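job 3f2a | input accepted
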Amino acid sequence: MQASQAQAIETAIRQYITESILFSKTYPYSDDASLLENGVIDSMNVMELVLFLEENLGIQVEDHEIIPENFDSVSKLADFVKAKQAIAA
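job 3f2a | predicted structure (89 res):
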């Protein structure tokens, strides 16, 4: 995967969280910051993120994949999406 494509995934995730969860214009955290520890997302937000990933980034998220290792930061989410896209390709 090209770097620009990977950056596009992180940008899309960051933008979604900023606009739809934080209701803000800027994302105040690093891409490695814990979304859970910083109180950015709760269980409902996780489900919204799953829908966003499936509808906009073309992956299918299985129930057993909804774990902090995959959903706890922008970087972890992007890595998860990249891995899912690579498997599907």
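job 3f2a | The radius of gyration is 12 Å.
job 3f2a | closed
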